[in-house]
Amino acid sequence: MSDHAVSLPAATGAIRLEASGPRGPKPRHVFSRRNIFLYGTLIVVALYYLLPLYVMVVTSLKGMPEIRLGNIFSPPLEITFEPWVKAWSSACTGLNCDGLSRGFWNSVRITIPSVILSIAIASVNGYALANWRFKGADTFFVILIVGAFIPYQVMIYPIVIILREIGLYGSLSGLVIVHSIFGMPILTLLFRNYFSSMPEELFRAARVDGAGFWGIYFRIMLPMSLPIFVVAIILQVTGIWNDFLFGVVYTRPDTYPMTVQLNNIVNSVQGVKEYNVNMAATILTGLVPLVVYFISGKLFVRGIAAGAVKG
Amino acid sequence: MSKSERPNQLFRNLNAKVASIPMILTALVIFVGGSAWTVLYSFTNSKLLPRLNFVGLDQYYRLWSTPRWLISIENLLVYGVLSLVFSLVIGFMLAALLDQKIRFEDTFRTIFLYPFALSFIVTGLVWQWLLNPEFGIQGVVRGLGWESFNFDPLYNSSIVIYGILIAALWQGTGLIMCLMLAGLRGIDEDIWKAARVDGIPMWKTYLFIIIPMMRPVFITALVIIAAGIVKVYDLVVAQTSGGPGIASEVPAKYVYDYMFFAQNLGQGFAASTMMLLSVVVVIVPWAYLEFGGKKRV
To answer: How far is CA A121 from the centre of its chain?
Structure first.
């Protein structure tokens, strides 16, 4: 037995050696006309996509005199971090002059509970829909998915009334509830599809062993579905951080999330426009989702692909 | 699946039902209830507060005779058609380019998709700056010596919507590209081999074989883009605030402004009901195609 097991890798190794002759497609010239066209186009398009990011960074590092004289594409002659400091700690929105930091912390306090709450609700929903289907469950699910396409504007005002009735209008917790509601369709779909694709024998075996609804969820489903939780977290963090409409409707100036505050800083009519501060503020606001995006890499793509294609 | 839970079904599923309460509440109270409430109140003359004082279709007559709403609709149509066409074309072409077994595919994909991670507010503000006539692209080209160069979409009311379109495409095409790329990867390699053996040129293979095969992906992309078009709001707010004048207004902004600034709730409800109607017009045929198609198979 053991002899056989040892000799097997050696044999495959030998086969691989023999087969390593001329295989695969014909090697192409690096500078063929096709390649020049292909890579040329891709590089030009890539530069176009990168241009706004470059201009943002470059502008935010210049002083105002240099911006007025120079070209938005030219690199800064004198690098200054003044605009960044100002954008973070002393840019004005209306009468408040404490910079974007307030909006940043508001956004943090909105995003973290919203992500946790929406994912907790949606994963349990998805699990119930995949494994514990009860009569009528699918009807509610269809309503939920169709509801995802209803323009938010249709439901904004009724929610204002509901939140006012329960005394949460204008507070951060009210906004957290709103984010959990509107994150539910896509997340429930994501989790339902994932849990349905897990082998059913697992679920049956756990049932036979006497595990109940929550037992199976916490001891089997949850540990086995970490990747989908990561995808959901990525989706929600970027989505909630980038939200503007709900922020502007359901919060007050002192609880504005970062995007709303950014818009107020940049588009304020009073005072001299400080383009460098504006761009620094813009980068600061975009930084969190960008970091999430660059760290998560392929998972981000998988997340949007799962959310979109299977829908 | 339901076989294993036949005995005591009602009792055994109690946990699942309790766990589904948030979903049921959201579906019934918010999605169905909220929409019905808004539609109902769009037939009233509510001003500052919602009141059930029915005035029939008055709000709709007023809506369709308000210049600002008509401009909003016109903008939405222009923006919608163009962004649909360009997103699909650019998205597909980028995906096709990336599908040529190129090197650094991941790098290129990362670059094309990163704007999608940014919010519409950030996108709008960056492009507001790039399209600034004094310092932006126009200023730079003029500075190079071409004094009569004109490119100021955000300050020219007849082309402002194209300025918004540029920003929207920059932000959103990466997503469509990803969907298309996934679709292209799902196509059997043998199709390509067969087409090559038959001597069909590459563009013809794409146009007549691959694209028809990717119909589901195109439909998905279409629905995603269409749903996004109706909701467009943040981008306009950040980039132009609806200006110059009212040249770049969109329906979503009309709704918000009438509900929360003009204190004319009835108008806001009527406008949002029109938005709902436009979505229904898009969704119903799609649902019909989707579900009709599934039944046939």
So the answer is: 18
d(C-alpha B39, C-alpha B48), whole Å: 17
Quick: pLDDT tens for A41-66.
Answer: 999 999 999 999 999 999 999 888 88
CA separation for the pair A117, A156 (Å, rounded): 20
Rounded CA separation B72/B86 (Å): 21
Residue B85 CA to residue B78 CA, distance in Å, equals 11
- Inform me whether the pLDDT recorded for B5 exceeds 60: no
Cα atoms found within 13 Å of the Cα of residue A158, Cβ hemisphere only = 22
How far is the C-alpha of A22 from the C-alpha of B27, rounded, in Å?
60
Domain that holds residue A176: 104-256+288-309
Taking the C-alpha atoms of residue B210 and residue B230, their distance in angstroms, rounded to an integer, is 29
Q: What is the ipTM of this complex?
A: 0.86
Question: Could you tell me which residues are beta bridge partners of residue A251?
Answer: A170
CB proximity under 8 Å: B 14-33 to A: 15-17, 19-20, 22-24, 26-33
Give the separation between CA A119 and CA A115, rounded to whole angstroms.
6
| CA angle at B107 for the pair B103 and B112, rounded to the nearest 5° | 120
DSSP string for residues in A63-98: -HHHHHHS-TTSPPSS---HHHHHHHHT--BTTB-S
Q: What is the mean pLDDT of residues B102-112?
A: 89
CB A149 within 8 A of CB A83: no
The CATH number of the domain where A134 resides is what? 1.10.3720.10
| CB pair distance less than 8 Å for A121 and B136 | no
DSSP B44: B
Contacts of B5 in chain A (CB under 8 A): 132
Is the separation of the CB atoms in B41 and B49 below 8 Å?
A: no
Establish whether the linkage from the previous residue to A27 is cis, with ω within 30° of 0: no
Q: In degrees rounded to 5, what are phi and psi of residue A251?
A: -125, 170
* Cα angle for residues A186, A190, A193 (degrees, 5° grid): 135
Distance from CA of B287 to the nearest CA of A (A): 9
Alpha helices in B99-214 (DSSP H): 105-117, 120-130, 137-143, 160-185, 189-197, 202-204, 211-213
Question: What topology does CATH give the domain B58-296?
Answer: MetI-like fold (1.10.3720)
Q: Considering the domain boundaries, does residue A31 fall inside one? A: no
**pLDDT tens figures, A64-101:** 888 888 788 888 888 888 889 888 888 877 777 788 88
Cα–Cα–Cα angle for A253, A259, A260, rounded to 5 degrees: 30
In this complex, do B34 and A155 lie within 8 Å of one another by their Cβ atoms?
Answer: yes
Domain boundaries, chain B: 1-41, 58-296
